[in-house]
């Protein structure tokens, strides 16, 4: 007779089902009564098993809704001068870029002010998918003459930073602020979510060697799929905290 406690055997079996994809990230597990009957144990024993999975970060439990496989969590690091895709792929995540639109347009007034130009700019709209699920909606405005140089690139396979580097542009710094926000249409539709959900909004301005602003970015980030992380060192300040006042 096995000396492994029943709750532990259940936890190991559910862990295997989650890791082999039988239960996918974000998917609901069967109701507790159904699982307890399936494993032939009491609700108390089943709840011990679920508590073990929760402590391991494999599931999340929501009062009144049920038990769900923990969503895929990735980290957007704010201490690096790289694109979203470069950060996420370095962490081993499978990232797909869907290019929604690419066109030269008149930029909004705030973008023209950020880029210090009244010229038309290249508007690049993308949706980033992590593990096949929409995660980030990103709109980049690239000022001239850099827009002309990169317009023909396939941004499904190459990042904007890489494309700029291949044209000889040296990126020296970026200024970024990340604030809480609410999903609005049509971005909500692009991400497959309901309007009004809480999100992170990243606003980034990228500068070239002569300290000229060349890209104005706005990224809407699903907070339940992406955490924001900063790395700090004694010789470098990577992040500033400021209160948000209404």
What does the model show?
This protein is of the alpha+beta class and 246 residues long. The chain has two domains: 6-69, Winged helix-like DNA-binding domain superfamily/Winged helix DNA-binding domain (Arc Repressor Mutant, subunit A, Orthogonal Bundle), CATH 1.10.10; 74-229, Chorismate lyase-like (Chorismate lyase). It has eight helices and ten strands. The protein has helices spanning 6-19, 32-39, 43-55, 84-90, 109-115, 146-150, 160-166, 187-191; strands spanning 59-62, 66-69, 74-77, 95-105, 121-130, 133-142, 171-182, 198-208, 213-221, 226-229. The strands form three sheets. A six-stranded antiparallel β-sheet has the order 4-5-6-9-8-7. Strand 5 and strand 6 (133-142) form a beta hairpin. Helix 1 crosses helix 3 (43-55) and helix 2 (32-39) packs across helix 3 (43-55).
How are the elements arranged and paired?
Elements: H1 6-19, H2 32-39, H3 43-55, E1 59-62, E2 66-69, E3 74-77, H4 84-90, E4 95-105, H5 109-115, E5 121-130, E6 133-142, H6 146-150, H7 160-166, E7 171-182, H8 187-191, E8 198-208, E9 213-221, E10 226-229
Parallel strand pairs: 3-10
Antiparallel strand pairs: 1-2, 4-5, 5-6, 6-9, 7-8, 8-9
Helix pairs in contact: 1-3, 2-3
């Amino acid at each position: 007779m096995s000396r492994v406690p029943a709750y532990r055997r259940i936890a190991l079996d559910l862990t295997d089902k989650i890791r082999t994809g039988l239960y996918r990230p974000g998917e609901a597990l069967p109701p507790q009564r159904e699982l307890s009957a399936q494993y032939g144990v009491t609700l108390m024993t089943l709840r011990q098993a679920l508590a073990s999975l929760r402590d391991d970060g494999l599931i999340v439990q929501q009062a009144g809704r049920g038990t769900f496989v923990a969503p895929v969590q990735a980290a957007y690091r704010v201490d690096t001068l790289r694109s979203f895709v470069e950060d996420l792929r370095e962490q081993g995540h499978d990232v797909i870029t869907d290019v929604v639109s690419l066109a030269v347009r008149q930029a909004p007034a705030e973008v023209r002010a950020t880029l210090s130009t009244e010229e038309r700019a290249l508007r690049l709209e993308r949706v980033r998918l992590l593990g096949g699920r929409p995660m980030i909606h990103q709109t980049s405005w690239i000022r001239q003459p850099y827009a002309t140089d990169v317009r023909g690139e396939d941004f499904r396979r190459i990042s904007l930073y890489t494309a700029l580097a291949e044209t000889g542009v040296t990126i020296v710094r970026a200024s970024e602020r990340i604030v809480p926000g609410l999903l609005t249409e049509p971005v909500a539709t692009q991400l497959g979510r309901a309007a009004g959900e809480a999100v992170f909004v990243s606003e980034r301005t990228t500068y070239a060697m002569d300290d000229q602003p060349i890209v104005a970015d706005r990224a809407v980030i699903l907070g339940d799929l992406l955490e924001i992380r900063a790395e700090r060192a004694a010789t470098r300040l990577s992040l500033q905290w400021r209160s948000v006042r209404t």
